[in-house]
Every structure is written in C-alpha cells, then in structure tokens.
Amino acid sequence: MSPDPVKVRIPSPLRSYTGQASVVEASGATVDDVLRDLDRQFPGLRFRVVDEQNQLRKHMKVWVNEDACRDLTTPVGDGDEVTLMQALSGG
Amino acid sequence: MTRLLVGTRKGLWTIDADDDGRQTWRVSEPHFFGQIVQHAVAKDGTILVAASTGHLGPTVFRSTDDGGSWTEAASPPAFVTGDRLGRALKTVFWLTASHEAGVWYAGGASPQGLFRSDDDGVTWSPVDGWNDHPMWETWCEWPEENTPDGSMLHSVIVDPRDAQHLYLSLSGGGTFESTDGGRDWAPLNQGVSADFFPDPFPEFGQDPHTVRMHPVDNDRLYMQNHCGIYRLDRPEVKWTRIGDNMPRDIGDIGFPIELHPRDPDTAWVFPMDGTEVWPRTSIDGRPCAFVTRDGGTTWTKQSNGLPTRAWFTVKRQAMTTDAGDPVGVYFGTTSGEVWASADEGESWSCITAHLPEIYSVECSWA
C-alpha cells in the first residue's frame, strides 16, 4: 500500500510551478520520492531544487517536520510535513 | 521594427522603436521580474531567455508570440546525471541561434559547458565532444574559477556556410574551433596576448571577452579580449592586434565588440579602464565608443551625447547593432541605462534609465 500523501510547503519562488499554491500534497517514502512526485505534478519544479547530480542546490533547504536535511534519502512517513525553503541572500 | 531585448539582474525588458526612424521608444513592463536574465536572443519568431533566480537552478524560457507568453524549457541545459566530473551547471550564460532550423547553442558559467537544442529550445543536451573532450579539464577553469563572476563559455558561433564549423570562447581559456559539428576542438589563439601568464602567448588560457564573426564575410572574426582588440581573417590562424591602433591614452581593453551588418570593415568597441585593479569603467570616467571603418587600421572616438563623466561598465553582451541603414548601435550599462544611436554612433541618446544592472542588449529586427 502506498503511503498517504504528505503536506509540502512551497516557497514563493517556486509557486509559479504550483499554480501559486503554497501547500500541496505529494507521495513518497523519502524526500527524493516526494520531490519526484512533485515534479510529476508540477513539471520543472524538481530541477530548480535539485541539480543534475541529485544534490540539493546550494541555497535550498528542506525540512521534514522540524528537522533540516540535505540527504535526499531521508525517510518521510505518514503525517509528516515537508517544507521547501530558498535561503534569501544577496541583493 | 527594431526591438531591443534587455537582460538585467532583475528581469527582462523589451524596448520597441516607434515608426519614426528609431527616435522614440516604448519600454515594456518587466518579464521574469526578480530573476537574473543573462541573455535573451530572438530568431525567426522565437525568443529564448537564459534565466535563474540565483538560488534556483538555471533554465531557459521561450516565447513564440513576441513575449506575450513564456514557457520553460521541458529539459533545460544540464550536464548528464552521473557526469564523470560530477558537474552541475550554475548559470546559462550565453545563447546562440544557428542558421539551421530549430538549432540553438547555450554556453554555461560555470562550469564552462556547451549545450545544444534541436527543437527551438524545448529540450537541451550536452555537447559531449566539448564537455568530455580529453583536454576539457586543461582548457577550462576547473575546478577553480579564476574569473570574478565565474568561468564563462560564450561567443558560440556557427558558420552560416557550414553548420559543422563552430567557434566558442572561454573566459578564461581562449578561443576554440571545431570543424566536425562539435565532436572535436582545437585552440585558435595564436597571436593573442595573455600577459598575466609567464608565457604571454600560450596555446590556450587567454581571456577573450567577446568574439564575433562578420555576417557577410564569414572568414572575418573580431575579438575584444582582456588583452586587446584582434582580427583574424581565415584561413589564417594568427590573430592581429588591431587594438594597437587605438589611441595610447585609451588603450584597447573592453568587453564588447559589435559589427556592421553589411560592411566587414566596420566594428564598434566600448573601451574600459584596465589599469591597476581593473575598475572596468570608462577611461577617466569619460564614456565613449570607438569605431573602425577600415578593419582596425584606424579608430574614431564617438561620444557625442554621452555623459561627460560617468562610472558605468558595458558588459560583453550589452552592446549590439541593428540591420538599419544607417545602422543603429545600442549599449546598456551597469547603472541601468540604455543608450542608442540611429546614425552609426555619430550621436547618442539615452532611451531609458533606472533599469537594474544590465547584462545584455540584443536586437531583433523585423
């Protein structure tokens, strides 16, 4: 049985992909699964977050609930909440 | 109609000439507001835009309705997953439209990758012959970057007579040529100075800022280099430093070099200060273009209408010409102004100001 969808919070720079939705649902057992499911729903979103070598881009942050992670194999379970965030810097 | 595509640090603007001999101009609202637009190029009804936010990944947007609507590339320029060097592209820096239907090239910064689209920018693939060339790590700045804004691949040129004949240039790294559609490459830097190296005339490692092929005389190349202005008439392989003919108090350092659409002997440059710590502003804060009408033998200053004192920089993609008669010449500044001349540089006027820092100005002429 596939896991229940998790809630994913979308930062404003990525909302052009989600029809301006700030919270969407995606399925998967890991952060990587969730990002791939997001890309199926919202084509192009994943590449703005993860580079072609499957590394989180330098200024992108991902939280699973209240834990920051850079490892895309971090597990995601029922009831978890994933937050994508773009660190704001520069001018 | 002349349309300028102005790429800036905070988005893309289009500036259209009214039907009054390019005297009045209409400036659009921003496209991709807040995104870094390194380059925007139009060809045959398609506009491609190289964009990123600085934090999100690089991408290409395309429009087939004059900028009325935009679609992101389904597969933007990127190295292959599992790349032998683990390379990930940070910025799409340069766009070139080939004369072949649907074919475009993109240059990366950085790493200095080359990418190609065969479907008018919808999908992109790495050009393996360049990116995986046995000399790539030697020719390119890798893994260190020595260029202040990142190592760039730019000035991708497709010979209109033979699409297998390509040139590209690296800042830093030099100029390279392929005669087999990009499967193999060779340095083309004889006679070009790299005075920052112990050997000032190495086989590669130079810092070309812009290289242009003349659209009528396809054997003629012009280069504005970190170390001077050069011309090469193929099949010769040794560049001539035509910048030696510039006034001594101006020198021949700059970013752009732009060509007359019909006369192979006419080119424009915008000299900058390359002394001491390289401020890259106009010499003594006195902006001026220079034009040659004899292939670089003599140069004439063109500053009528420009500010007597100003401290902006004109970047390598930020100067262009149109196809008019007389030719229109345009440049954008790091201080957000676009300057235009409808008389081949004889006089200049500011057609808009207060834009963000300008990275590129390209013309589409219809």
Description:
The complex is a heterodimer of chains A (91) and B (366). By secondary structure, chain A is α+β, with helices and mostly antiparallel strands. Chain A has one domain: Roll (Ubiquitin-like (UB roll)), CATH 3.10.20. In chain A, 18% of the residues lie in helices and 24% in strands. Chain A has two helices and five strands; from the N terminus they run ββααβββ. Chain A has a five-stranded mixed β-sheet, with helices on one face. Chain A is globular. The termini of chain A are far apart. Chain B is mainly β. Chain B has a domain of 141 residues: Methylamine Dehydrogenase, Chain H (7 Propeller), CATH 2.130.10.10. In chain B, 2% of the residues lie in helices and 37% in strands. Chain B has two helices and 27 strands. A four-stranded antiparallel β-sheet of chain B has the order 3-2-1-27, with no helix packed on it. In chain B, strands 4-5-6-7 form a four-stranded antiparallel β-sheet, with no helix packed on it. The longest helix of chain B has 4 residues. Chain B is globular and about 55 Å long. Chain B starts with a strand and ends with a strand.
**Share of helix of chain A, binned:** 10-25%
Average pLDDT figure of chain A: 91
| Low-confidence parts of chain A | none
Tally of contiguous helical segments of chain B:
2
The CATH class of chain A turns out to be Alpha Beta
CATH C-level name of the domain at 66-206 in chain B = Mainly Beta
CATH topology of the domain at 66-206 in chain B: Methylamine Dehydrogenase, Chain H
**Rough outline of chain A:** globular
Please tell me how large the radius of gyration of chain B is. Answer: 19 Å
Based on secondary structure, the structural category of chain A is: alpha+beta
CATH superfamily of the domain at 66-206 in chain B: YVTN repeat-like/Quinoprotein amine dehydrogenase
Q: Largest interface, and how many residues on either side?
A: A-B, 20 and 19 residues
CATH architecture of chain A: Roll
